[in-house]
Design a protein that fits this description.
Blueprint: E1 11-16, H1 23-32, E2 36-41, H2 45-50, E3 55-56, H3 62-75, E4 80-83, H4 89-99, H5 106-113, H6 115-124, E5 132-136, H7 141-147, E6 152-156, E7 166-168, H8 171-186, E8 192-197, E9 202-211, E10 214-222, E11 236-239, H9 245-262, E12 267-276, E13 279-286, E14 299-300, E15 304-305, H10 306-314, E16 328-334, E17 340-346, H11 348-352, E18 357-362, E19 369-370, E20 381-387, H12 390-403, E21 405-409
Parallel strand pairs: 1-2, 1-4, 2-3
Antiparallel strand pairs: 5-8, 6-7, 6-8, 9-10, 9-12, 11-16, 12-13, 14-15, 16-20, 17-19, 17-21, 18-20
Helix pairs in contact: 3-4, 4-5, 5-6, 7-8
Length: 418
């Protein structure tokens, strides 16, 4: 296995948003294999000095952000520019293209980021795809609701983590969903809402790497909890999959076809898919690694992390022979149940004392506001488990979650100004 020489440290640029979950695992992986990291953080320059950020990046001004990265590379050779979050993916691809670094094309990266472009490319590529249409925010939702088929799902084009994704079963629910998504977009990014047919079926996630040899599948995750709406909170991921070999082959084939249709050729891929009697339907295909802290469920070789695998690939080090460790692992992402202020949580020691539970990490901050889906984009925390079978992992995760208690003080709405 090749490791970068510590006397001539290889430099990588990692682009991230300020609230990313991914900075710590990528920083640890870079340190382990001796990489020098420049952190490009999406912050205004005045704030960057307060946060001690040497490389502020404004993702809303992609041309300026790319120039900043090109200027950095003129003073110090850079081996890779990697986006840790979807919001930075297009800037990373554009900068990599200018610098001649390994990358997906900017158009493929945008297709993996923008849900409308993704649907258009999947349909053009002959991949199973629901009926869909996109409408501007200023459109009349009543007229659209009357003409829509049900059930359907409304989505913002550029948000992730199921934020703003709502199922509607009738015109009344459609209009309510439209208003909620419109309010979200007024505070974030986007001017359109995608409306697509609801796809029933079991949901799975695929983690993979793309390279010269095509798609290298790292893991298939089962999602044993039904994700039927009206909102789509991610909860349990367990690997390896308990589906039949034939079903797993269909899932992997659909992932390859979707990546091809989008034009993705290099780096990590995280795909969400559904399986029903009509086949496998890609829900989303992202050109990045798995979100949250869920990458902890994957270990390769002698404890090599997913982030280390990604960094090794992009810097040209060998990853051949690094196979996923045996056994079963899983995670439960603890959804936020209600809006309010987190005042207290208990049960961590009891949960961590359970057989097969590795760790409970509460990421929500005490005395800070919580926002559940569809407005929110976070979790209360994560529970990790390891055992010899997926069934034992799932049972341990459910038991551990049942032992946790969260005290959430409801927010008192402000009185209207007279």
């Amino acid at each position: 296995m090749n490791t970068p020489n510590h006397q001539q440290r290889v430099t990588v640029v990692l682009l991230a948003t300020p609230n990313t979950y991914r900075s710590r695992p990528f920083a640890a992986a870079a340190k382990k294999i001796g990489l020098k990291v420049h952190w490009g953080v999406d912050l205004p320059e005045p704030l960057s000095s307060e946060w001690n950020i040497a490389l502020p990046i404004d993702l809303r001004d992609s041309a300026k952000a790319v120039r900043t990265l090109i200027n950095l590379a003129e003073h110090e050779p850079v081996a890779a520019v990697i986006a840790l979050d979807d919001a930075a993916s297009v800037v990373a691809a554009q900068a990599s293209a200018h610098l001649g670094l390994p990358h997906n094309s900017p158009s493929a990266t945008l297709a993996a980021r923008d849900k409308l472009i993704m649907r258009e490319r999947l349909r053009a590529g002959g991949v199973l795809c629901p009926g869909f249409s996109a409408f501007p925010l200023h459109a009349d939702p009543t007229g659209i609701a009357v003409k829509s088929s049900y059930p359907c799902v409304l989505k913002p084009l550029l948000l992730n983590g199921s934020r703003g994704v709502i199922r509607a079963n009738n015109p009344m629910e459609f209009e309510t969903a439209w208003k909620r998504i419109s309010a979200i977009l007024r505070k974030s990014v986007g001017t359109c809402i995608l409306v697509e047919d609801y796809i029933p079926g079991k949901e799975f996630a695929v983690e993979a790497l793309l390279g010269e040899g095509g798609l290298r599948v790292l893991a298939i995750f089962d999602k044993p909890d039904p994700l039927e709406g009206p909102f789509f909170e991610e909860t349990i991921y367990v690997t390896p999959s308990r589906m039949s070999a034939n079903e797993q082959d269909k899932i992997l084939t659909a992932t390859r076809e979707a990546a091809r249709a989008l034009g993705l050729r290099f780096g990590p891929v995280h795909a969400e898919l559904r399986l029903n009697e009509k086949g496998v339907w890609p829900i989303e295909v992202a050109g990045r690694s798995i979100g949250g802290l869920c990458s902890r469920t994957l270990r390769f070789g002698s404890g090599v992390s997913l982030e280390e695998l990604v960094l090794r690939q992009v810097t040209g080090s060998s990853i051949e022979g690094l196979m996923i460790e045996s056994g079963s692992r899983g995670v439960i992402m603890i959804p936020i149940p209600e809006r309010g202020i987190l005042r207290k949580f208990t049960g961590i020691e009891a949960a961590e004392a359970l057989t097969y539970i590795e760790q409970v990490e509460i990421t929500a901050k005490l005395n800070y506001p919580l926002y559940p889906l569809p407005e929110g984009d976070g979790y209360l925390g994560f529970i990790f488990a390891q055992a010899d079978t997926p069934a034992k992992v799932e049972a341990a995760l459910r038991r551990a979650n049942s032992l946790l208690e969260f005290e959430i003080e409801p927010e008192i709405p402000l009185e209207p100004v007279q």
